[in-house]
């Protein structure tokens, strides 16, 4: 007979993966709503500051882990893993449908494997190498497509670069922040990233009034899609391991494109579907090869 604790875990895990996929997918919808009124710098500053604020209690509780010499590393990781990718996705959100960023985000798993192989001595194998190739073909298909009659190549390159930086960040966290409680590490890196972006946000803060809708979207990105999502993700990693938790990657583009179609009436083109199938298929093969 299955123990009650195992039944509870089995019931919670798929539900929490679904919720996390929906939360991260909705972040691309919220960016589409808020990116133009705020501009990338101001929007990302709000996102980073609110996300860090949600997680600060964990940083305070684990403050003994954070010696003075660790903070320069935290600042670098914060820039690579949060500040710059968030800015790239916000810039892309000004120029392309939400589905574009959500699909590009799925490349993170593949880039993490590639960076680990090239710079951190991790094995990659033939199957994962082929998965990387197929994923890149998907990016090319997406970059050469049009949405609403407009070219989205620049937005695709920005999203793919953000995913590459996420892949670098995953490996840096694994190498330099091992042994530090993840929620506290996330609070520290987000706080550093917020401080790095602050001067740019101050000089690029909008001079016009920002409506309630964009403000609500910006707050949702910071509190829910960054702060709370990190907590949920790390809880899943603790319960089921990083490989299984990373399967949430498959859900993000589906929710991102679905929400944008439902609430913003943004089209899902055949090229988006083809690119999404190539990228998500390659991610699935890459994960199976782990």
UniProtKB/TrEMBL annotation:
The keyword Transmembrane applies. The keyword Membrane applies. It comes from the Bacteria. It is found in: Membrane. It is a multi-pass membrane protein. InterPro entries: AA-Vitamin_Transporters, EamA_dom, EmrE-like. Its main location: membrane. Keywords: Membrane, Transmembrane, Transmembrane helix. The chain crosses the membrane at residues 17-35, 41-60, 72-92, 98-118, 130-148, 154-173, 180-202, 214-233, 245-264, 270-286. Residues 18-143, 156-285 form the EamA domain. Belongs to the EamA transporter family. This is EamA family transporter.
